[in-house]
Specification:
By secondary structure, chain A is α/β, with parallel strands linked by helices. Chain A has helices at residues 16-19, 21-30, 43-51, 66-77, 92-104, 128-134, 145-152, 166-169, 173-177, 217-221, 234-251, 260-275, 293-311, 318-328, 334-345, 353-360, 365-374; strands at 81-86, 110-112, 124-126, 141-143, 155-159, 180-182, 192-194, 200-206, 223-228. Chain B is built from 34 helices and eleven strands. Classes of the chains: A alpha/beta, B alpha/beta.
Chain lengths: 376, 839
């Protein structure tokens, strides 16, 4: 926890409770509603923190469904674990970070799921030198996030939980239902850790990985599931991409933000290739690559950066073709021909200079196609 | 259309005239809102209006008493306007001006409560909105059916969206529940509604359809007239109209008042309004058409027991439904759902849980999967495909299954009564449960019943199904028909709605068929389909018109599938109406002649189309094969009829003699055409194969001679690439004549072995199609031939065992070939494996 370090500004990405320290303080001061046991603030204040309130100077951080935020908070407040699930790049991890920061003031108790994750990275491990010297004592124990969260009454973020082996996932079963962790190595009262008020788990999983089908029914039963969808409203997504890309470009030292028509073409293209339906109601082949808002932001960043550092000028619509191709060739060569078809059949017929510019740059795809073919 | 009489209408005119205009109070409501309904009830009790004016079709006002009978809700006022063919100002557009409208009521509709409470208070009741035909005319882009109380535009207003964001609501329905459906004192609710609609109206003025101004002017004139004679006038209308209506009423003050004329329907149009039973399924915005509100079952409960009880009720209903479907819903899950609902309710500051709180709570606690599509209640419109099945069931539980029924004394359109009378006269029981009837078309009663059922089917009246339709087609003429009769709860509603087509069954079916033909642009298949229906319905006047139309449509039709379909329909119709000395044959003979002429014309046209087809490399597909098969079916039918005409006794020959001459020529022409097609190398192989089948079947050669001839013909007509396509045509047309014995099996086998790998993959779909025309035992025999010729006596069944999709097989073969090629490239393995086997 780096709450009061002077060098916070120099960090690449400080945790949410540091980035939004002032907002959290304002909300706590203004909070008139009762807070659930163990919570740093009331549900209404958490909601305002995440969804924003201009009159209080609180920025909107999550642009998705407000009802989803309601349900997520109430799940946590009613001591159900929360499972956020959805396509990659739908801001699940960000939502979990914001929730943890607001609810307990600490978003850093994080377990990153993966094939190599073991139970001692979840609950506790041992300092082997001390263990050999002293035997199993509280001093020799190395607490992992789950232990710390239970002890301090905090939120644990379990990222990509479905990427862990099943038996490791199930390690949190009894912690969630009985709210107690047994430590058989220790004797006396140290042998049982009872969770303090405020302890809970926010898990995330993405539907492109293994999904939740292999998760045990027992664990599923202890979690409330919330699916996070891509942003439904095109205008909201456009504004978000524009804002985030501008932030990234500024931090990269590029003074000029992207043109509106570049953002417009980029976001529309992403939405159409994601949903498989064009603004005119025609169907197109959706890409198998993830075309998330987060990906759109990173492509917008790439478009701006390329143009500025390679040519020393503002990005044009044609730059999008290069960057989208780079995104699309990630895992499926077929996606390139889908983009090709999209340009030929849909974009070609659109009026407007920016769409024609995008169509005009279609030849730039060819380089990626041959590059892909040559790859083993 | 006849108008019923009412004991209540024009109560106002009997009141003593008052010197000062009466006071007017306008209650702006949302249609189908329990809170608004309660408010209407409270205001009427409190204020005791002497007249209640309600937004509803003014043409129904004189019959408003019908709504006060002992009905079971929901019900609707159904209105229609329709130019019957031949009566409209312009016949060509006759079907275009047909429009239907429903004004649905349920127990918690403010309009319904206004009617009932107003009646109880002794007030004069009237509907004050324009009739639906005036609405339809005011807006040209309106679709031909509408729900008067749909409330469709509300969720799209920017102002509403902004309010949703401000109050953190997922959509218009959630916003409405939060603002208005919470427990509120009537005065507070009224003030809140007024403020909401007064703020909303100016923001949407520009997006309102022009017809709204016409309607508001009409409503204002109506109310102005009413207040001249009534001291206290309560107006119940959509909230969005309220500000405009009040402004207009103010402007009218002191002006002379005359009862506004109810706009009549356009000249020559038929129109009418009737009560119809409605259902919650049709009311529900998730399933119904243009519905005003979601989850009617839920709001019914809110109305019956109050909003505080609704959460517990919903939990119970959902639990019962899910467990009834054998879905595991544990007590712990239900507790979790209730806790979630309570938490959401508290957090959103609701005094009682709203529908969205309850649904959100259930979605969180009960669904244990990732969702593929958004929660259905987070947006407006039908439930999207891919919605989690559990949520679909939850919504069904909230939708409720209530169905309305009308008081027995409710006036129905004459059509309903005449159908009921006819059913009774013919002894058809309409008791619940399914009965099967055998109708002998040779008796007058059987024939009439059959036609009646067919007409009801044609009008989409549920409950009458021909049980032996398929068999009748295969076996041709049969005097006995089997029908399943299963009276549906929608029977009366469907009949009332069908009466929009015409006053009698005959007129209604004719109008509907002609409208369908007009909509399809008068193309051949639509005309011929209608012809078949007209025959079954015994609509002889229409039949003559349709035969005439069909004759004209033939030349414009260049689609062999359409002509093939028409050939089949006409042939079946001819078989079913074959003149027969036992039957009531003077009617059949009347239709038989024109049908026979049509068949001859169709056969000639199809021959020309097939013969002219180009595409030597075209793959065989089922429509093409079916088109040749239809021609064969027709020629065989004509040949048999022609033979019978030459040999049968004179009595029969007399009735059919004009046909047979035409038949024999038609068969000859078809044969000549098919002979040319067979020899034409540019003709698609499937057509050439079909042509061979047709000629063969007509040639009357013995099977052995034919088989001997086959090898020669097939070899001459095909190359390895086109063999499968050719055979598909041949087998599809003349399966009965072709006996696949050693000769043909060997022929095919040899051809397959000669093919290269890509050629085999290419031919595989056609070969599969070709052999599909054989029944399974015959395919087994063919497999036996192939297997034994390769020395695998016992494995024949494995050749038929491949049930995988042909594309999977093709993909597998391609993959194998690619692997083999790669192996050969690196000098390992034996190169590509030999083709065959799994076809």
């Amino acid at each position: 926890m780096a709450t009061k370090r002077r060098g916070a500004a120099a960090l690449q990405r400080p945790p949410a409770e540091v980035r939004f320290k002032d907002e959290l303080a304002t909300l706590k001061k203004q909070d008139k509603h009762p807070a659930p046991p163990g919570w740093a603030m009331s549900l209404a204040a958490v909601r305002t923190f995440i969804l924003g309130d201009e009159s209080l100077g609180i920025s909107r951080k999550f642009v998705g469904d407000a009802a989803l935020v309601d349900r997520a908070m109430v799940s946590l407040a009613t001591r159900r674990g929360l499972m956020l699930i959805g396509e990659p790049g739908t801001a699940k991890s960000m939502l979990s970070e914001l929730l943890a920061a607001a609810v307990c003031g600490d978003s850093t108790l994080t377990i990153q799921g993966g094939a190599s994750l073991t139970e001692d990275q979840i609950k506790y491990g041992w300092n082997y030198a001390l263990l050999v010297a002293e035997g199993p004592t509280p001093r020799a124990m190395v607490p992992a996030p789950m232990y710390q969260a239970m002890k301090q009454g905090r939120i644990v973020r379990f990222e990509e939980i479905t990427r862990c082996p099943l038996e490791v996932q199930d390690a949190i079963l009894s912690l969630l239902s009985d709210r107690v962790m047994a430590i058989p190595e220790l004797s006396g009262k140290d042998g049982m850790l009872f969770a303090r008020e405020g302890f809970n788990v926010i898990a995330t999983a993405n539907t492109r990985d293994r999904g939740v089908n292999e998760m045990s029914a027992a664990l599923k039963r202890r979690l409330n599931f919330e699916t996070v969808f891509p942003i439904a409203d095109p205008a909201v997504e456009r504004a978000l991409v524009s804002r985030e890309a501008a932030k990234l470009l500024t931090s990269a030292g590029i003074p000029e933000p992207l043109n509106d028509d570049v953002i417009d073409v980029l976001v529309t293209t992403f939405r159409e290739l994601r949903t498989g339906r064009t603004a005119e109601g025609k169907s197109v082949d959706p890409l198998s690559t993830v075309m998330s808002t987060a990906e759109a932001v990173s492509v917008a960043h790439a478009v701006g950066t390329r143009a500025w550092f390679l040519r020393g000028e503002r990005a044009s619509v044609a730059d999008i073709v290069d960057c989208i191709a780079g995104t699309a060739v990630k895992d499926n060569a077929e996606d390139l021909s889908r983009i090709q078809r999209y340009l030929d059949h849909n974009v070609a017929r659109r009026k407007g200079a920016s769409w024609q510019a995008l169509y005009g740059a279609r030849h730039r795809l060819a380089g990626y196609a041959t590059a892909k073919k040559d790859a083993p | 259309m006849s108008a019923g009489h009412t004991p209540v209408a024009d109560h106002a005119s009997t009141e003593p005239s008052v010197a000062q205009p009466g006071a007017v109070r306008v209650l702006g409501v949302r249609h189908h809102s329990p809170a608004c309904a309660r408010l209407v009830d409270a205001v009427i009790r409190d204020w005791q209006p002497t007249a209640v004016c309600i937004e509803g079709p003014a043409d129904f006002s004189p019959r408003i008493g019908e709504l006060l009978l002992e009905h079971t809700l929901p019900l609707a006022v159904f209105s229609f306007v329709h130019h019957a063919p031949g009566t409209g100002p312009d016949d060509a557009g006759a079907s275009g001006t047909r429009a239907l409208s429903w004004s649905p009521f349920c127990a918690y509709s403010p309009e319904w409560v206004a009617l009932q409470a107003g009646h109880a208070a002794g007030a004069a009741l009237s509907f004050i909105d324009v009739p639906m035909w005036a609405k339809a005319l005011a807006r040209a882009d309106r679709p031909d059916r509408e729900n008067r109380y749909a409330d469709r535009a509300a969720p799209t207003f920017d102002h509403v969206k902004a309010l949703c964001t401000r109050f953190g609501c997922a959509g218009y329905d959630a916003l409405w529940d939060q603002l208005f459906e919470q427990p509120l004192a009537p005065d507070a609710l009224a003030a809140r509604l007024d403020a909401y609609f007064a703020e909303l109206r100016p923001t949407v003025e520009a997006s309102l359809p022009p017809s709204d101004a016409v309607r508001e002017e009409f409503m204002a004139a109506h109310v102005h007239h009413t207040r001249q004679t009534s001291p206290r006038v309560l107006v119940v209308c959509g909230g969005l109209h309220k500000p405009a209506l009040e402004a207009r009423l103010k402007a009218l003050e002191g002006q002379p008042a005359a009862r506004p004329d109810v706009p009549g329907a356009p000249d020559g149009a038929k129109f009418g309004s009737y009560l119809v039973p409605y259902s919650f399924a049709r009311l529900d915005a998730f399933t119904g058409y243009q519905s005003g509100m979601p989850s009617p079952g839920f709001y019914q409960h809110v109305w019956d027991k109050g909003p505080a009880e609704a959460a517990a009720f919903t939990m119970r209903t959902v639990q019962r439904r899910l467990r009834g479907l054998k879905q595991p819903v544990s007590t712990a899950d239900l507790i979790a759902a209730e806790t979630m609902t309570g938490g959401l309710q508290a957090m959103r500051g609701h005094a009682v849980a709203t529908r969205t709180d309850i649904l959100d709570g259930m979605a969180s606690a009960l669904v244990k999967d990732a969702l593929d599509v958004r929660l259905p209640w987070s947006h407006r419109g039908h439930i999207e495909a891919g919605t989690h099945p559990l949520l679909v069931e939850v919504l069904k539980a909230l939708s409720g299954d209530a169905r309305g029924s009308l008081d027995p004394t409710t006036p129905h359109p004459p059509l309903v009564q005449s159908v009921q009378d006819t059913l009774e006269r013919l002894g058809v029981s309409m008791r619940p449960g399914r009965t099967t009837l055998e109708l002998d078309r040779e008796t007058a009663d059987g024939r009439e019943t059959s036609a009646l059922f067919a007409r009801l089917c044609a009008l989409d009246v549920p409950g009458f199904v021909r049980a032996d339709a398929q068999r009748a087609r295969l076996s041709g003429h049969s005097a006995v028909e089997r029908w399943h009769v299963e009276p549906s709860l929608d029977f009366t509603a469907a009949l009332i709605e069908a009466s929009a087509w015409g006053g009698t069954l005959e007129l209604a079916v004719s109008a509907k068929l002609q409208s369908e033909i007009a909509q399809a642009g008068g193309v051949l298949d639509a005309v011929v389909h209608a012809l078949g229906v007209a025959l079954a319905c015994e609509l002889h006047a229409l039949f003559d018109v349709l035969v005439h139309d069909a004759m004209h449509a033939i030349e414009d039709c260049h689609d062999t599938s359409a002509v093939g379909g028409a050939l089949d329909v006409v042939r079946w119709a001819l078989a079913a109406t074959a003149p027969d000395e036992r039957a009531d044959s003077h009617v059949d003979a009347r239709v038989h002649g024109p049908l026979a002429a049509l068949l001859v014309a169709l056969a000639g046209h199809q021959t020309r189309l097939l013969e002219a087809m180009r595409g030597a490399g075209d793959k065989a597909d089922e429509p093409t094969v079916a088109a040749v098969a239809a021609l064969y079916g027709a020629t065989r039918f004509m040949a048999q009829a022609s033979d019978a005409g030459n040999t049968a006794d004179p009595a029969v020959r007399d009735t059919a003699s004009t046909d047979t001459a035409g038949y024999a020529d038609a068969v000859r022409l078809a044969q000549n055409g098919m002979e040319r097609a067979l020899l034409d190398a540019d003709c698609p192989p499937a057509v050439r194969g079909g042509a061979l089948g047709l000629l063969w079947a007509h040639a009357d050669t013995s099977a052995d001679d034919a088989m001997a001839d086959l090898e020669h013909t097939v070899s001459a007509a095909t190359s390895p690439e086109t063999l499968g396509d050719f055979l598909a045509g041949l087998f599809g047309v003349a399966r009965e004549q072709v006996r696949v014995d050693g000769t043909l099996a060997r022929l095919v086998d040899r051809a397959v072995l000669d093919m290269t790998e890509p050629a085999f993959l290419d031919a595989l779909p056609s070969l599969r199609l070709a052999f599909q025309y054989f029944p399974r035992p015959e395919r087994a025999r063919i497999a036996q031939h192939i297997a034994s010729s390769h020395g695998f006596e016992r494995q024949a069944h494995t050749l038929l065992g491949a049930v995988a999709d042909q594309h999977v097989l093709q993909d597998a073969q391609r993959l194998e070939a690619a692997v083999a090629a790669r192996m050969a490239h690196y000098g390992i393995g034996n190169g590509p494996s030999s083709p065959g086997g799994s076809a």
